[in-house]
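Hey, resending since the last one bounced:
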Amino acid sequence: MEIRECADNDFDAIFEIINDASQAYKGIIPEDRWHEPYMSRPQLAREIGDGVEFWGVTAGDDLAGVMGIQDKGDVCLIRHAYVRTAQRHAGIGTALLKHLRAMTTKPILIGTWADASWAVRFYMKNGFRVLSKEETRSLLHTYWRIPERQVETSVVLADATWKPEQPTARANVT
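The structure tokens again:
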């Protein structure tokens, strides 16, 4: 298993992995937030353009999983963590998360769907804690650009370096 930074020529593989793995959300997240594909090519390009740096695990010559990290100044966000359905439960997500955590000394925040219980358990197993509804709402408005409906149905998890007294009231990042 090799971890490497994704390059421009990995765009199609990242797109495929996200849309394969996101099938797990179908019927779990609110129906009005589900669409096919889950993430379009233009959406993926916008995420990369907004500073999400994707890293991937290779299995042979192919990417088996991807995870993004986005520097937001005072924190880093873990974004778009997906492993191909056929390669789940092989330690790929854990390896990526460990690698990305080692890349920064800043607090790390992760947003995910509240009803994606497997994702929440995964992050908790890896040392993250679920933040209060009030703090989640504030952080989602501060660091993410997502619709209000998604804010209502999401949770934010934080690593041990996150302190509740850290600033969360700055202007929304747009």
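The first strand starts at residue 2 and ends at 5.

Sorry for the duplicate.
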